[in-house]
Amino acid sequence: MHAYRTHTCAQLRAADVGTSVKLSGWVHRKRDHGNLLFVDLRDHYGITQIVTDSDSPTHAQLDKLRAESVVTITGDVVARSAETVNANLPSGEIEIRAREVVVQSAAHELPMPVFGENEYPEDIRLRYRFLDLRREKVHANIMLRSQVISSLRQRMIGQGFTEFQTPILTASSPEGARDYLVPSRVHPGKFYALPQAPQMFKQLLMVAGFDRYFQIAPCFRDEDARADRSPGEFYQLDFEMSYVTQEDVFAAIEPVLHGVFEEFADWQGKGRKVSALPFQRIPYRESMLKYGNDKPDLRNPIVITDVSEHFRGSGFGRFASMVEGGDVVRAIPAPGTAEKSRKFFDEMNSWAQGEGFPGLGYATQKDGVFGGPIANNHGQEGMKAIADALGIGPNDGIFFSAGKEAQAAKLAGLARTRVAEQLGLIDQNRFEFCWIVDFPMFEYDEDLKKVDFSHNPFSMPQGEMGALETMDPLDILAFQYDIVCNGIELSSGAIRNHKPEIMYKAFEIAGYTQAEVDTNFAGMINAFKCGAPPHGGSAPGVDRIVMLLADEPNIREVITFPMTQKAEDLMMGAPNFATPKQLKELNLKLDVKA
Fold it and tell me: What GO MF annotations does this protein's record show (predicted)?
């Protein structure tokens, strides 16, 4: 018999009754029933119940052990009585009558229990992450992550992509976030940068003639944490293709994402639906108008409408004067709120003020009659015209967001989400994908008082050189696109600008000289001068994909060893101070400001 186990803790069934077995695992839970002691033994695969009676020497051994001690148990498989069968366990028809117990590792008092799903403070969970990972839900999330990555990899290979690895120690790149720098010992005073993304390398692979590249790529960015963004590092399904249009990129990656989400849509019996192929395409400006942002949650049925012209010269003086001054008014339907009290609408206004906005106007409606200050001033006919423009019913209220276009759109988008959440309108059992397309190539930077790139400086402008030479820069669109699922941006991508003359012109519009382009992007621009194919790609975030499939609100729940909000690893004690010897080897001296 094997030294540690003949079976795993999820393997034994009724057909194994009468056999002698050996199992190893952690003491998950103990239940003392007087003459009988029951122990749930847990390993990576599952749980098997162990039983011992007070006459057996194994009783005393198991009784004194703390939970999470590691033991090896030899015993006999016996059938449970009908009334004690546990239908929730694969091994629930049997139990092991212990004959011998070997303690492999006795656990001390635990800083947090493993049994149960109670919530514990983040610092405790992350400091003792090795215990947290033993808990059923987190353990299952990490296994889901592994399965998702395996599925992504196989699907990409099936689409004709080849996996390559790109460097980790590299030069700084303009991805928009702060770099993590690594000092060089052999080149004093110089630093490597950890890659924010393999962007330049994957483009250079296309120039090198490899045609279809992918990797599950680690990326490093020194940026603040959010619920859907891990500080420090993350992983993405990075890919690039040669001789492709934007639609070719969509056609390659859509089946991969759709297939993975369909494969795991019923994970843990959730039974969710995935939007059909092809995914919806929504132009950027349309998305900003209808949904108030460029990552819309299409499970939310509410659509925002611009109603500025309805208030031009109207009886509601405040909105009328704002529209005359160039501001906009956006309307957000509130379906089925006729029976809601005034408190519901007032609380929405207070919420908007708490978010840093002046407020959120509203009009109530019951049986086609509008109420509230805006309706009283704008009049029933004027309100009816707005309701017709929104396509709403006689018992639907309306919220209003007014101000400069960007701020009005932002508040309207936030209000759209909050109204839907408050009214229970978001279908939690769907994955709704869409592409956001036609991003503007340039934007006006109010702080710097200049035109700058709005999204990705290496994207091909729609219309190429002709657009750059003849159009207002703020009207030029780019072949840039984001893929969004349930309001979460999974990735940005683009058809790349592979022509040096177009790159020089695009950077010139943003205020960069040819010399600056040659210096800052020497590797890429020199490669393009040696013949570059048209190419494009994207990089869906693996962590966010798993977060959506696991139905977790925070990304740390699907990462094995995440950092805190402050980018600290409490378990390993990172970051930490370097020793004087290390600093000397790197030719570094510290001048740390308090």
Answer: aspartate-tRNA ligase activity
